[in-house]
Automatic annotation (TrEMBL):
Keywords attached to this entry: Covalent protein-DNA linkage, DNA damage, DNA-binding, Hydrolase, Lyase, Protease
Pfam families listed in its UniProt record: SRAP
Source taxonomy: Bacteria, Pseudomonadati, Pseudomonadota, Gammaproteobacteria, Oceanospirillales
EC number(s) recorded for this UniProt protein: 3.4.-.-
Similarity comment text for this entry: Belongs to the SOS response-associated peptidase family.
SUPFAM superfamilies: BB1717-like
Sample GO molecular function, one term: peptidase activity
Enzyme class: hydrolase
InterPro entries tied to this protein: SRAP, SRAP-like
Protein name in the entry: Abasic site processing protein
Gene3D superfamilies: SOS response associated peptidase-like
Species of provenance: Billgrantia pellis
Keyword match DNA damage: yes
Amino acid sequence: MCGRFSQFSAYPRLAKRLRVSMDADAPPPRYNIPPGTWIAGVRKSAHDAPPVQLNFWWGYRPKWAKGKAAQPINARVETVATSGYFKHAFARARCIVPADGWYEWLATVSGKQPHYLTRIDREPIAFAGIYAEREDGSLGCAILTEPARGSAAEVHDRMPLILDDASLEPWLDPDLTDRETIRAVVRHIDAGVIEHWPVSRAVNRPGNDEDAGLINPA
């Protein structure tokens, strides 16, 4: 799964690569982003429109769902294209969430130990996401996850779907709606570029979001 992540340097670098039209200032550095908060992401409103920066509520609940309907933070790649809850967003409302890395918790004899996962080369990470308009008119999103690969599988059985560079533009293209075509042109990064290390349990506190030391090896 992906339940916490960091976004401190990746956004401006990935935004420049995507030629993003900035509707607001670059987001401030965050080192421990929890669900149920506003997160910075990128989407396109039309095929020929430039990508734009938007804030998404990390919690996906389409306005038609209403009430106490589920508000998932993740969507599984295995079912996102066919689930009644997600399939419209998968076809027409895809986004990218820039990140520097993410956290997972490994069960140990002394309790759950948080680990930080990131690219070995420290290049920006592009999480694949989907979004929908919420009842209040804002946009809520979920990050796609897939079975863990490479060293990420040492920590958890799921990991976020991280797009390779060639997949960024087609993933954002709202005119690309056919499920099989999307799957044919969108690829995840090679698992060999991911590494991880244990970090302080201070990351367990969701409000602890501004401490750059959270990602340091414990």
